[in-house]
## 1
Amino acid sequence: MFRPLFALLRRDLVLALRRPQDALTVVGFFVVVVALFPLGIGPDPEFLRRLAPGVLWVAALLAVMLSLERLFSDDYRDGTLEQMLLVPQPLGLLVLTKVFAHWLITGLPLVLISPLLAVQLNLQADEIVMLMLALLLGTPILSLIGAIGAALTLGLRGGGVLIALLILPLYAPPLILGAGAVDAVMHGASAQAHLSLLGAMMVFALFATPWATAAAVRIMLD
Amino acid sequence: MMEFLAMGGYWPYVWGSYLVMAGLIAVEMVQVRYRRRSLMGWIRRMARIRAQEEKQ
Amino acid sequence: MSERGIQWFRFTAPANFYDLAGRLIPWFAALTIALFAAGLYLGLVVAPPDYQQGDSYRIIYIHVPTAWMGMFLYVLMAVYAAIGLIWRIKMAEIMAKAIAPTGALMTFFALWTGALWGRPTWGVYWVWDARLTSMLILLFLYLGYMALHAAIDDRQRASNASAVLAMVGVVNVPIIYFSVQWWNTLHQGASITVTDAPTMATIMFVTLMIMVLAAWMYSIAVVLARARVEVLERERNARWVQERLEDGRT
Amino acid sequence: MADREFRAVDLAAERGDRRLFEHLDFTLSPGQLLQVSGRNGCGKTSLLRILSGLSRPAAGQVYWGDEPVQSIDGGTGSCLGYLGHPNALKEDLTAEENILIAGGLAGGRPSHEAVLSMLASLGLAGYEDLPVRFLSQGQKRRVALARLLLQAKPLLILDEPYAALDVQVIDVLRSAIEAHLSRKGMIVITTHQVVDIDGDCHNLRLG
């Protein structure tokens, strides 16, 4: 049962390794956006620290969103997505596997690079740990929800801009919870509630979104 | 009358709400009507062309 | 082309819908005018000013009905879209598409009037209050739905794809609402609490309900009119359209 | 190989407002080939996509034995292989990797030797460990065909398999098709060129 999924996961990872610039572009975007913020709002360390959770989260969210266009479009163009519909496996599971691969390639590097940027924005050690934890729980949600938008815009002109319009409103809850978790630690409160809700949301997204994405893929290839 | 229009000094807000709503509702209705009218026009034209072709 | 009619149920047959809607629209339009006239007269002239907010509170007579309408129409749109997607009923697809612009307009009214009411009440046009923020996100969801529908050329695919989006949106609306509300209570620094009107006199309540009904009637009338145009566009080559053109029954 | 018939009953397809075809029926028994012909835009590709379960017909039903195709356990892919216009190859992977991964996804990973001999029989010996982007259009098409033939599905649905192939390779492909038919396989094919194939061939003209 899991062999085919493993084959797909390995394929996507191998492809990403053979073209590492794609994944690196996303990380680069994240770094540059965060670096530009202080230039816009001034160098006061205390002020930057207060804005840091929101800035880092919005930048991560935009980076994930930009990378989403590529999630299915390469497979769509060369016909492999079509062949995937014929694989004797539930399409939802295949989609979930692809999203997981996408998260390993784009989401995880964002989590790993975030402490560096957090230090630039003057966050303290415990806040940085919380930031990483929240991003670890939150970026999969971003990839899972975003996959629906990526599937719905397959083969459309201007698909990239359309993804943003479709998906960004749905990103409000993880943004609120993720940035809120870091904020709570900053104000000496417990972030337990934020993290539990974020975790619950991830589990829900894990079970619900692959089917919506699969339905969207079938519709767009019909 | 002036007193009614002044709305207790809140006239920009009250009339700003009501008039914008009235204006946009009018725009919506005109737009639906316009779409219908232009569609009808070219369905008629299609029918006429088809009738002519059949005659020939 | 005309064989397509056979697949439809009597109830959803486009020709029947077209005729029925054509007969109903004038009634709904008349009701809309009557209710709006009554509501506006009561709301702007008869009802007394609020003892705290003065005359500015009169904005709620359109703010509350349009906000309810905006939310309700989104759910209705998603239900129609789901019916169209699952049972492949074309009339449901048409209804979903026809609802979207009116729903978006209602949501926009709610935001606009909310901002204009906020200025005299809180001193600022926009507050990131839970309700306004969720309404803003709802407006974005409407815009996304319409943009996706417009971006796909194939009509069937456009209906199906935007139906998926509408259903995803309707699952998300409560999640968004509660997370925004939660976020709002956490950031209660410069405290602003929003309540419609603390105690509502009977005349105010009656007026509000009349305006709610008026918004309903207006939405039904304009959605039916738009659905009618949409039916005509899809069925332009069908025999029943030609028949009605010849009879002048349009 | 196949023990069931493949049937289409009263199929119809439309694109936008246009009916491409309707009331289309056929039955394909094991060992038979169906060649679909017709001018461009008459719905050949649409028909093949409907038969392979990728698109829903506007009316009608496709059966595998007595089962409607959409209710087959594991999807239509468990009984048929489909080759469309795109080759469904990853340019950054080698020919062999492409074939092995597709096999792994389909649940039956062919052995290294089987891949080599299949590629060799299609005239691609020595090309197996080159990234696909170094191959010519015709060579890519052959890799795609090798992948399809290795999956050994009872029914093959081929959309213009000869596109970009040279004359010698057409001969190789023809013998592969004939071998599939003699093993009681079934084939649905569209081509521009007329290629005569030994076996139980039927013709379907659209439009």
## 2
Amino acid sequence: MPLRILMLDQVIFYFFAAIAVVSAILTVTRRNVVHSAIFLITALLATAGIFLQLRAEFLFIVQIILYVGGIMVLFVFVIMLVNLDVAVRQLQFARQKWVAMLISLALAAQVGLMLWSTGKMPGQGMPVLVAAPVDKLPPNSEAVARSLFESYLLPFEIASVLLLVAMIGAVVMAKKRA
Amino acid sequence: MQGLTQATLEFVNQYWAPLVCGLAIVAVLPLIVGYVVLVERKLMADMQARLGPMRVGPHGLLQPIADAVKLLIKEDIIPDDADKLVFWLAPVLSVGAALLAMAGLAIGPAFQIAKDINIGILFVVGVSALGIFGIVLGGWASNSHYSLMGALRSSAQLVSYETAAGMALVCGLLFAGTLNMTSIVQAQHEQGMWFGLLAPVAFFVYLVASIAETNRAPFDLPEAESELVAGYMTEFSGFRWSLYFLAEYTNMIVVASVATTLFLGGWLRPFPRTHWLDFIDFLPPLLLVAIGVYCLMRTPKQPARVQQLFMLAVAGLCFTVAVVLAAPVLLRTPFVNPLLASAAKPFYEGIHGGFWFIFKVSAYLYFFMWLRFTIPRYRFDQLMRLGWHFLIPLSIINVLLIGIAMIAGSYLHLEGGWLLLATIPASIIALIVALFILAMEQKSERQQAGGAAPDPYA
Amino acid sequence: MGPQHPSTHGVLRVKLKLDGERVIGSECMIGYLHRGVEKIAEHRSYQQFAPYVDRMDYVAAVSNGLGYCEAIEKLLMVEAPPRARVIRTILTELQRIASHLLWLGTHALDIGALTPLFYCFREREEILKIFEKYCGARLTTHAFRIGGLQYEAYDTLEKDVERFCKAFESRIGDYEELLTQNRIWLGRTKGVGILKAADAIAIGATGPVLRASGVKWDIRKAMPYAAYDQYKFEIPVGTTGDTYDRYLVRMEEMRQSRLICLQAIENIPAGPIMAKVGKVLKPPPGEVYHAIEAPKGELGYYVISDGTVQPYRVRIRPPSFVNLQAFDQMARGHLVADVVAIIGTLDIVLGEVDR
Amino acid sequence: MLPIGHYLFLGLALFIVGVIGVVTRRNVIVVLMSIELILNAVNINLVAFSRLYGDVAGQVFALFIIADAAAEAAVGLGIIIAFFRNRETVLADEMDLLKW
């Protein structure tokens, strides 16, 4: 495996991972809701970058179009409609700060232990990702499409029904109390 | 440390082509946009029985440079308690999105920044969808009630027309079978038929949706509304405003090139495979020679000495480009030995492909500008109604019909040109459905003729 | 919408009560251009006040002048000579076309069509050139004098007017092509700002606004003045009284005016251009009300004289002021974008509204 | 040659930040945003494993998660708007009445 593809992969991964974590933290801590929305967008774009690094291009573009271009636009719209100044003045942070710390510590300990122990188990070891150049891999979007419509057709239909229900729900919910 | 420098060296020599192309695009684009604006103003003036910018340079040719300098040195006002971070970020975001979308385009077979990524068109559409944030945040950051209203309106318009545009693209992609830009054009080359002819309704829907998506012509409501004054762009001045301006025009170019790639056969000559029409190859150089001669005839009439020099320079430029275009064609003619001809093949492919692509994109842009001068503006609720009630159902039904036509085509194993036999009835059915939707629309409108137009915010 | 708003044809402030996008109520605040013209009239002699009249409806100055001069002539029981009356008619009709052209250009611009504005101004330029040749001024012409005309018609007047009228026919065709069948123009104007005939009469609206609602009332036919009784022309009448009908009525009026001009220049009678009126005018004490058909509607002058050189009172009835009352009724229930179209279709000029 | 652990740690980090966001923030919109963060964390793990075993199923499942996130965001925001229109507040604490 030529050195440069290896180096490149790691550089890209660390770059996007850093952005994702930092902007996620900022999303949660920002006082102004619009700023947290912007940082969430950066976090989502960073995760899209990681999908790209994992050679999942179709997911990369779906994440950009659907998540960032769709859902986040909804969020920003609602933030605009809900007049901010009322929300900003109110206290943003609940008092359960310690409860949150407790939960996250417990979670971190649990998963950390699991990851650490897999490293220790004899023989199997930490499975290593084979970084392959693009051309060797089957074209990603075709593969996703083939499996989506061949082996996972039923979930696809269920998802469409789910989306339909959500659409109707959102419309009814947002309708003016006429 | 040694490994790092060695890796970066290898990285550079493997990816130098896209880097250079990217740099070229980012550097040249403001100039191109400047001259597109000049052409637009000249065209508008010509249609309105006046002359347009004539003062700076001969026939106003230096006007864009004057505009750029003016915008750079104009004072940059930030409304008092506006949100500094977001106020700076918004225009950058919209320009960034537009320029990033440029990366995905395939201008010639050789000239493509992101070397054939296999989600080509999807990448371009997805990234240009990010521009919405630039508009919404820009409107919000300048915290004046009017610009926020303008921003909300234009983003609502963008979102609703994106779906229609997406559906129309799906239609085109049905024929192409792949998402990758270069292979779409290849498919059009093999089938010898532009997809715009195979799916005319989809092309029409995409045309209308792309006009709405770039906030232009009859849909330029958000910034031209009389009481919203300049919509989300009101508070921005000087360089920031020019960023938005650049973003709008780059979006226009991006949308135009997506349309040309998918519906008008990218860089293909009008009749690529019919060899007895090869004289079309001589058209581009002749056209440029004609422009050059025209410039030469105009030079003596120029008042100032420096303007004459400038006109001469323009004429010279036209002639050199004409020679560059003519070279590969001459090389291919029989009396040149085949060895040289085969060498010229890729060369010819690249240059002529580039010319035809730019020619089609500018024809598309001309149509944009032409619309802008002639027809009045839609009211916001009519605009939304057109989008939701007419365009989106029409494009969805069209996808359905084209799908059926494709199956029928493959069943009767029609190929290329013959596919028209299946797609024309499909398009006709689509048009009938469109008329039906319009009729229903008229009926529902008459029912509410009593009450005034429905209010989109109600 | 503040006074310096781009689309309110001058300084008009409209207070809109909005529910979301829809207009519930509106109130027009005027007075920003009030110059107290009527008060000034009481301290000026009859001839001295004539130039003030042009400054009122600066878009149709000639017809203002005509109204004032004829009112005073009525007071003096003096009749302008036939030659003067015919030339007055020609100039007033040209002024009507110019005013309608300005209305069409700005109205279309408000709704978004950029091109008609420049076509209209090109034609209007021709008319203003004729005025300039005749009386030296383009906009505030002060072309007429009490008792007749000041200046003899310059020799190529007939040829210029004829050339203009010939070219104008195809030009109207251009505007029609651009706008009349245009779906978006129809969408923006059909059913917008409806004023039913009964309401129009109740408000006292006159001119194209009244005729578009279906009431066939035109002072040139009802109480002919100047030389209108000698010419044949129709009065265009609308049906529903919406913006589109007012557009059609005004376009037809331009054609009719063109016909009148053509008929008029065929035989301009020879003879004096000024009736025998002394230098110092002392009309007998009494009062007179004289109305003419200005491009915007019925422009009335109510003059009371107390036998001295200066009028006791000059009351002017401007058509725009009266038509503006219909604004609130028309705008109610429409969207903010339509408010702009409604202001345009009323064709108000603030100089006339505020006096 | 990136051991999968890196991706799992990244997913874990985002997951934890999301949970903290959900728990500590009072503004309902930010809570919804943190939920989006959590879903993203899950997506990263899924795609990492699908890449490890070369099977595309993981990415397809991630696709379904994104679709579901869209549906959930749409309905959630609809509820917020309806709620905001009645009670003029967006804070989670004040959403205490089931029927008002």
